[in-house]
């Protein structure tokens, strides 16, 4: 549903509230090995098969920074138009848990690798800038599995030590819809950069959601609650909706919001308290003495900048300028790097605007139906371009084109071959058409008389007959013209 | 008892090189004496089958060009040794057998040395008398009621008692130099980052450093040469070329400027220590060195600073011993938290628990700035004191310890008095500098005393040279009478 004015407010019994949201997104860094060890990072491997002595915290083991993870964080920072800090520090965050072998997580506390940046959202009511507070690198923990055995917990350390980027937004988001757009935009940027695959089912992207509410017009933020570890956009939206309404209800009843950490129960669709501020962990952060402060030379930042691909915001602008697309079309077509590549290939060989329409219509519907990624499309960009060109040149009608499209999906064949072999070419020879039309008019003399005496609705009947006779191949425009001419005579 | 094992490491190496003794013969001599010396309790683990097998292999195909050809060596039980128990002196790791080898010991084996066994130490290297070990206290061969110092007490005791020709320890606040001083041996703590920490059970990461413990300065230079070197597995390791400390060893120290810091003349210091210090000054002066009075004004803050920084790091480093993955696990407890609590209560000794508590406290929110952060700032000032003076002097001479070896049990109930024993050694760790303790004399009781030479960053060669010259002119003789045999 598109609207041209922002309208996400919550009406309580008494007052009208605005919702303030900030996100801490945990994005798994795409890299072959972990942040501080050489272990592999492949998803879905046999439990505890990608664990080194470092990941399992054996005595005397020491972390060594994986440079690729640093580069990935810098790339991401650049993609978020953020300041890259030449000096940053790795700290230890101390707490005990069975899937945290070291008894501490190596993270960045006071001095993160990336500072302030921004992300641009395209909302139906205009574009909106969301501030980025910081991005820091940290280790992921392992996984505790509580449901494999009634009395034991199993621990899988494959994930232990994998690099995460925690991207902290400013409290600039105001609705579940903006959160949706923000997460998708972050994901798009990181996928363009190749720094995070953004796969939420595999846990590569999760978020802690901070929610507070305040009366419309208030300048001061309300007390916030943090909803931990939400792993899908849908759940984030549901959790925000629930949490904001809960807070509004409390405030309208004259009660106070307690600052606390909450969990989202996906079965009951509600958030519930996990621990209050008083019970908050004291993580005893301090600089990790096993690691030197991280110094990043400006040259490295400059070099990485040069290798960055064209990012979605720039590409969108270019698509609008070069291909004459509107903002909506351009947005959709740059939303994934593969889609934009496919489109550009098609647009090079065919009508740009028509290509966009057909991609966003039939092609996307088909891919969606089959649950396929565009890179797995049964129709190649080259064949798709030929199809678009056949429509544009009038060789086939839009209706026939849909049939050709279906056959292309089934066979993977070239549209020319299909049109040829099935004789689907549009009937555009006026002489041939006139012959067909004359036959029809002769056969339906009574209807011709009725038409002539004023029953003009019958025109459609004649068109239908022509299409039926020609197997749908008659050129619709030409058919109209000839029919009109002959019916006059 | 054979006279051969009384010899220095360098002399034994000569004998092996001249083929006057075989590696296996030498190994058997040590094994024989170790077996008869259980009273000292300096070994936690022996691996004699391995020693004999390796020495036989060496004798079959001797590589005489290596630094430590076929030399049997025991090491502090803080170094992980592949396939051999590594306990860190703790119940927590009583049965822990690493499947990896520490970089430093690996370096020794590459130079031809052969593991003889693992030496007792204070639990997780926390202690100054080797009385906190789960495996019992170690006895100083000097006298049966004295401690050998700590935490590398097993190493010092074994070395002084001829149960290993040389050894290695670790030094976080004096754990090599203090026991060396107590046993009349030489101990060197290298510049932080010179020897890799990879595979050494961690106590306080920013202070821990492995180093040699030997019977002579020359031995010390050989051992340091063998164990030091850049290691990409340790992010704090210094990338530099290997040095030939033993080849470059010289006694000419003419014109060298030696600093005497006035702050090391502490209250209630025994007169003997002061006299020893003066003796050191005059020996070096006679050798042509300039003796210069200097001031290291922040020295008095070193001990409190150390006892914030080291426990803070330890409290985090020891979090991994939780009973989940390896090591001791209590059989009591109904859930994860109870299992943690019982495991750590039963697995750690009192001194380790004390330091974990102190460390946890100083890092806690609300106390961090007042303790940990302030300690880090003071640490910088202490380092600055040294940096400024190293513009004026080439090395600094101080006593190694404020007393000679004390009696077993004398300080166990008084942690502060125990901590005070490290007063001269701790500043060096905080500043990351190299320092060597050389035996300098005996006190009235006949117990040895050491002097400490502190050098500039990576200036190990220089302090080795000064110590070498000093040793040659000091005529120190350790009086160990093998009373336990």
Average predicted confidence as pLDDT of chain A: 93
Helix content of chain A: 25-40%
Q: Give the strand content of chain A.
A: 15-25%
Number of helices of chain A: 15
Oligomer: heterodimer
Mind explaining what this structure looks like?
The complex is a heterodimer of chains A (489) and B (485). Chain A is built from 15 helices and 16 strands. Chain A has 489 residues and is of the alpha+beta class. In chain A, the strands form four sheets. In chain A, strands 1, 2, 6, 7, 10, 11, 12, 13 and 14 form a nine-stranded mixed sheet that branches. In chain A, strands 5-4-15 form a three-stranded antiparallel sheet, with no helix packed on it. A two-stranded antiparallel ribbon of chain A has the order 3-16. In chain A, β12 (225-230), α3 (233-252) and β13 form a beta-alpha-beta unit. In chain A, α2 runs antiparallel to α3, α9 (381-392) runs antiparallel to α10 (398-411) and α14 (458-470) crosses α15 (476-488). The two termini of chain A are 50 Å apart. The model of chain A has no long low-confidence stretch (mean pLDDT 93). Chain B has 485 residues and is an alpha/beta fold. Chain B has helices spanning 9-17, 23-36, 48-60, 103-110, 153-160, 177-183, 217-227, 271-286, 302-317, 336-347, 350-363, 369-389, 415-419, 426-431, 460-474, and strands at residues 43-46, 72-76, 114-119, 167-170, 186-189, 210-214, 257-261, 290-294, 395-399, 435-442, 448-455. The relative contact order of chain B is 0.14. At the A-B interface, loops of A face α9 and α10 of B.
């Amino acid at each position: 549903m598109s609207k041209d004015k922002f309208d996400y407010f919550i009406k309580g019994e008494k007052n009208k509230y605005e919702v303030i949201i900030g996100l801490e997104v945990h994005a798994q860094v795409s890299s072959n090995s972990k942040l501080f060890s050489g272990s592999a990072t492949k998803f879905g491997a046999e439990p505890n098969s990608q664990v080194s002595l470092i990941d399992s915290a054996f005595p005397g083991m020491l972390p060594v920074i994986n440079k690729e993870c640093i580069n990935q964080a810098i790339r991401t920072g650049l993609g978020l138009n953020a300041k890259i800090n030449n000096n940053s520090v790795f700290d230890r965050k101390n707490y005990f848990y069975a899937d945290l072998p070291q008894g501490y997580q190596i993270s960045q506390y006071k001095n993160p690798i990336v500072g302030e940046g921004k992300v641009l959202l395209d909302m139906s009511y205009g574009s909106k800038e969301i501030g980025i507070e910081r991005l820091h690198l940290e280790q992921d923990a392992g996984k505790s599995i509580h449901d494999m055995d009634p009395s034991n917990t199993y621990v899988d350390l494959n994930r232990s030590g994998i690099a995460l980027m925690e991207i902290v937004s400013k409290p600039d988001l105001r609705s579940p819809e903006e959160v949706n757009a923000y997460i998708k935009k972050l994901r798009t940027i990181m996928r363009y950069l190749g720094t995070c695959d953004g796969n939420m089912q595999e846990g590569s992207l999760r978020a802690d959601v901070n929610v507070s509410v305040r009366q419309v017009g208030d300048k001061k933020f309300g007390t916030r609650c943090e909803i931990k570890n939400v792993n899908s956009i849908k759940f984030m939206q549901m959790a925000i909706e629930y949490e904001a309404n809960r807070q509004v209800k409390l405030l309208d009843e004259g009660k106070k919001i307690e600052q606390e950490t909450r969990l989202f129960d996906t079965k009951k669709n509600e958030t519930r308290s996990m621990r209050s501020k008083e019970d908050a962990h004291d993580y005893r952060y301090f600089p990790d003495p096993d690691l030197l402060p991280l110094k990043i030379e400006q040259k490295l930042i400059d070099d990485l900048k040069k290798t960055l691909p064209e990012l979605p915001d720039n590409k969108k602008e270019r698509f609008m300028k070069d291909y004459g697309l509107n903002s909506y079309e351009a947005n959709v077509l740059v939303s994934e790097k593969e889609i934009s590549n496919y489109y550009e290939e098609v647009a090079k060989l065919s009508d740009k605007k028509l290509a966009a329409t057909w991609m966003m219509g039939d092609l996307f519907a088909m891919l969606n139906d089959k649950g396929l990624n565009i890179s797995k499309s049964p129709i190649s960009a080259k064949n798709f371009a030929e199809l678009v060109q056949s429509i544009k040149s009038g060789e086939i009608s839009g209706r026939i084109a849909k049939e050709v499209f279906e056959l292309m999906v089934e066979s993977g064949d070239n549209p020319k071959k299909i049109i040829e072999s099935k004789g689907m070419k549009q009937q555009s020879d006026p002489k041939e058409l006139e012959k067909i039309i004359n036959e029809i008019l002769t056969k339906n003399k009574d209807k011709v008389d009725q038409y002539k005496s004023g029953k003009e609705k019958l025109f459609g009947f004649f068109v239908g007959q022509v299409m039926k006779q020609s197997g749908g191949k008659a050129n619709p425009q030409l058919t109209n013209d000839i029919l009109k001419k002959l019916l006059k005579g | 008892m054979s006279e051969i094992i009384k010899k220095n490491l360098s002399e034994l190496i000569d004998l092996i090189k001249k083929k006057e003794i075989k590696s296996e013969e030498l190994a058997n001599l040590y094994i024989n004496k170790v077996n008869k010396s259980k009273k000292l309790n300096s070994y936690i683990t022996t691996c004699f089958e391995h020693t004999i097998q390796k020495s036989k292999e060496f004798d079959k195909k001797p590589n005489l060009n290596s630094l430590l050809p076929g030399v049997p060596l025991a090491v502090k039980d803080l170094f992980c040794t592949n396939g051999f128990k590594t306990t860190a002196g703790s119940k927590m790791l009583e049965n822990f057998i690493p499947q990896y080898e520490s970089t430093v010991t690996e370096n020794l084996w590459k130079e031809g040395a052969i593991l003889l066994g693992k030496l007792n130490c204070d639990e997780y290297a926390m202690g100054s008398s080797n009385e906190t070990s789960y495996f019992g206290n170690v006895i100083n061969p000097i006298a049966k009621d004295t401690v050998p110092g700590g935490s590398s007490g097993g190493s010092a005791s074994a070395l002084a008692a001829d149960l290993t020709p040389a050894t290695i320890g670790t030094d976080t606040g004096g754990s090599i130099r203090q026991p060396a001083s107590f046993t009349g041996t030489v101990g060197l703590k290298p510049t932080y980052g010179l020897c890799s920490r990879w595979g050494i059970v961690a106590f306080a990461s920013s202070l821990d450093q492995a180093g040699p413990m030997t019977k002579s300065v020359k031995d010390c230079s050989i051992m340091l040469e063998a164990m030091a070197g850049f290691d990409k597995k340790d992010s704090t390791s210094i990338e530099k070329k290997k040095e030939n400390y033993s080849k470059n060893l010289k006694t000419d120290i003419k014109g060298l400027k030696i600093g005497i810091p006035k702050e090391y003349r502490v209250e209630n210091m025994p007169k003997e220590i002061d006299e020893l210090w003066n003796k050191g000054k005059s020996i070096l002066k006679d050798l042509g060195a300039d003796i210069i009075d200097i001031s290291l004004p922040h020295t008095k803050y070193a001990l409190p600073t150390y006892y914030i920084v080291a426990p803070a790091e330890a409290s985090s480093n020891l979090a991994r011993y939780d009973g989940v993955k390896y090591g001791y696990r209590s059989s009591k407890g109904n859930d994860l938290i109870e299992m943690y609590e019982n495991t750590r209560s039963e697995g750690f000794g009192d001194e380790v628990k004390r330091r974990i508590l102190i460390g946890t406290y100083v890092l806690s929110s609300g106390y961090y700035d007042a303790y940990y952060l302030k300690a880090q700032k003071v640490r910088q000032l202490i380092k600055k004191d040294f940096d400024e003076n190293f513009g004026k002097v080439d090395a600094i001479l101080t006593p190694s310890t404020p007393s000679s070896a004390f009696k077993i049990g004398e300080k166990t109930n008084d942690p502060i008095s125990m901590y005070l024993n490290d007063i001269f050694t701790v500043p060096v760790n905080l500043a990351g500098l190299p320092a060597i303790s050389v035996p300098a004399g005996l006190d009235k009781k006949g117990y040895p005393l050491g002097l400490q030479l502190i050098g500039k960053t990576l200036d190990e060669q220089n302090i080795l040279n000064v110590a070498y010259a000093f040793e040659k002119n000091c005529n120190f003789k350790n009086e160990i009478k093998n009373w336990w045999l």
